[in-house]
Design goal:
It contains 8 helices and 11 strands. Helix content is 40%, strand content 19%. It folds into 2 domains: 115 residues, 3-Layer(aba) Sandwich (Rossmann fold); 98 residues, Arc Repressor Mutant, subunit A, CATH 1.10.10.10. Helix 6 packs across helix 8. The strands form 3 sheets. Strands 2-1-3-4-5 form a 5-stranded parallel beta sheet, with helices on both faces. Strands 6-7-8-9 form a 4-stranded antiparallel beta sheet, with helices on one face. It is an alpha/beta fold and 235 residues long. It is elongated and about 55 Å long.
Length: 235
C-alpha cells in the first residue's frame, strides 16, 4: 500500500489516481490525523508526503513515520526551502519531488525507492510488469504494444488502437477532443483516422470495459470528446 498525504484534494487525487492506474494500492490522506489512522491499520510500503500542510507539517510526520519503523518516504515540496528538504532527508526521507510534480517522474522515483527498500515493484498491488498500465479489465503493455488479461493471455492491438490507448494512458482524467487524439496518436492519415475514431473506440471498449454497453473506463463527454477514468480502470 502507498499512502499519499496532501491537504490539496486535487493534487492528492491526481497522484493517487496515477499510481493506482499503474497497479499500486493507494490510500489518500488529507493530513497528519488521517495518516496516523492509516498507519495504525497497516504499515505502508511507501508514503508520498507533502511537506507544507496546515496543522502538523510534513517534517513532524517524517519523524512520526521513522518512529514506527523504516517506511520509505518521498517528500512533495512546493515552497519548502532547501533547508526543509535537507532536514527532511536527514530525518530519514528517501527522496523528494518538486510540486507541481511531473507524474511520470514521481512514478519513476516511487519504483526506485521501492527497489532500494527491497519491496516488490508494485508493493501491495497487482502490477504485472514495469511499463504496463491498468485499463479496465486488461493491462496495456506499452513496450509490447498489446493487452494482457489477469491470466497473462495476450490480446493483440492494431496500431491505431494502441496509439489511442497510449494517448489515454498518458492523459488520465483529461477530456481529449478528436483533434487532440489525432495529434497524440500521430495519425499519418488524419482524415481517415478521424472518420473512424469512434469505431475504433467502440472496438477498444469491447476489449477493456467490464460492460461495453455502459462504458466507464473510456467515457464519452458529449460535445467535447473522450476521457479516460483511472478510478474505473481497476474494476
Amino acid at each position: 500500500m502507498i499512502v499519499v498525504v496532501d491537504d490539496e484534494a486535487a493534487t492528492r487525487e491526481m497522484v493517487g489516481d496515477y499510481l493506482a492506474m499503474h497497479g499500486y494500492s493507494v490510500t489518500l490522506c488529507d493530513g497528519g490525523d488521517a495518516l496516523r489512522a492509516a498507519v495504525d491499520q497497516a504499515l505502508p510500503a511507501l508514503v508520498v508526503l507533502d511537506l507544507n500542510m496546515p496543522g502538523e507539517d510534513g517534517l513532524s510526520l517524517v519523524r512520526f513515520l521513522r518512529q514506527r519503523g523504516h517506511v520509505p518516504i518521498i517528500m512533495l515540496t512546493a515552497t519548502a526551502s532547501a533547508i526543509d528538504r535537507v532536514v527532511g532527508l536527514e530525518l530519514g526521507a528517501d527522496d523528494y519531488v518538486a510540486k507541481p510534480c511531473e507524474l511520470r517522474e514521481l512514478l519513476a522515483r516511487v519504483r526506485s525507492v521501492l527497489r532500494r527498500a527491497g519491496a516488490p515493484a508494485a508493493a501491495g498491488a497487482a502490477e504485472p510488469r514495469a511499463g504496463s498500465v491498468r485499463m479496465g479489465t486488461k493491462w496495456l503493455d506499452l513496450d509490447a504494444r498489446l493487452l494482457r488479461d489477469e491470466d497473462g493471455i495476450e490480446h493483440p492491438l492494431t496500431s491505431s488502437e494502441f496509439s489511442l490507448l497510449k494517448a489515454f494512458a498518458e492523459n488520465p482524467k483529461r477530456v481529449l477532443t478528436r483533434e487532440r487524439l489525432l495529434d497524440l496518436a500521430q495519425a499519418r492519415d488524419a482524415e481517415a483516422f478521424d472518420r473512424a475514431i469512434d469505431v475504433r473506440i467502440t472496438r477498444i471498449r469491447r476489449k477493456i470495459e467490464p460492460d461495453p454497453a455502459r462504458p466507464r473506463v473510456i467515457r464519452t463527454v458529449r460535445g467535447a470528446g473522450y476521457v479516460f477514468s483511472p478510478e474505473a480502470a481497476q474494476t
